[in-house]
Inverse folding.
């Protein structure tokens, strides 16, 4: 059993950017491709901490976490087992809701595509 | 002597009732003031968000407007922190869900796209999401916790930040069976 803890502010940046690498530094795409997805592939459990980040844009979160299913090819079940996102300050509770919503929507989208292909 | 004690007891009862009433009233007024301030910031954030989405990327002030939007988002985060522990979980959840939708409209999509065009649709979506937050705050401003619940919550609340965790729900309701 291997586990990894990543604090976005400490291990990446306290000021995350937008969605894509091409639109600026510290994007959701960059965080997902360089840090999050490799950690999930190499470990049995990954804990992400939001503490210390200043402002998290919705586009960053959607690309980083929703993109795990939409782009990086992780399944919902796999992420359900491996991934935990947490924060101690109450101000991050809204962002935790957003992350969950992003991942559920990405999984629904993926399931819809799969069903359409089967049909 | 007995008259003295009954007068003292009456005074003590009157004093205690007065203190309890004032404590309750000040708590209620404080919560209403907080909710009023929260609504004002939501309104300003919606205005800033609409201005941002109506200004095409590459315009002179687009970057400044995005920074303003982020600034408002941080102020709204602050209100969530203040209200945590003041409202019941149901009201907090309702506000949290409405705020998540507002944040999604404010900084979702591609706000950093240098070829982004102005979008009246997105600006309208910001106002619609903001109106949902107003409704959630308005509902919450009349605290639904009973006096006993409030006292218990005050006595049992942790003064150290608790860990909030997101773990995906095991059931996948969206999958076709």
């Amino acid at each position: 059993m291997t586990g990894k803890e990543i604090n976005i502010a400490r291990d990446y940046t306290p000021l995350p950017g937008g969605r894509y690498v091409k639109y600026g530094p510290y994007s959701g795409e960059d965080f997902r491709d360089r840090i999050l997805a490799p950690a999930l592939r190499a470990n049995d459990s990954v804990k992400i901490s939001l503490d210390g980040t200043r402002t998290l844009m919705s586009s960053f979160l959607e690309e980083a976490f929703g993109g795990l299913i939409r782009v990086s090819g992780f399944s919902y079940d796999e992420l359900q087992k491996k991934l935990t996102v947490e924060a101690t300050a109450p101000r991050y509770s809204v962002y935790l809701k957003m992350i969950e919503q992003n991942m559920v929507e990405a999984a629904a989208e993926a399931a819809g595509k799969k069903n359409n292909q089967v049909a | 002597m007995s008259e003295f004690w009954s007068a003292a007891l009456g005074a003590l009862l009157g004093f205690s009732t007065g203190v309890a009433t004032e404590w309750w009233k000040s708590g209620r007024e404080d919560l209403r003031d907080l909710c009023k301030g929260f609504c004002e910031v939501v309104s300003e954030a919606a205005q800033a968000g609409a201005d941002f989405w109506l200004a095409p990327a590459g315009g002179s002030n687009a970057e400044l407007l995005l920074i303003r939007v982020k600034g408002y988002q941080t102020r709204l985060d602050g209100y969530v922190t203040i209200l945590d522990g003041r409202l019941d979980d149901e009201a907090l959840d309702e506000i949290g869900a409405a705020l998540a939708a507002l944040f999604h409209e404010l900084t979702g999509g591609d706000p950093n796209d240098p070829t982004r065009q102005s979008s009246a649709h997105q600006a309208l979506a910001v106002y619609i999401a903001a109106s949902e937050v107003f409704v959630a705050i308005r509902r919450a401003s009349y605290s639904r916790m009973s006096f006993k619940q409030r006292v218990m919550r005050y006595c049992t609340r942790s003064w150290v930040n608790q860990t909030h965790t997101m773990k995906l729900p095991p059931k996948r309701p969206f999958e076709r069976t």
About this structure: The beta strands of chain A are 3-7, 45-49, 83-87. The first helix of chain A runs from residue 8 to 11.
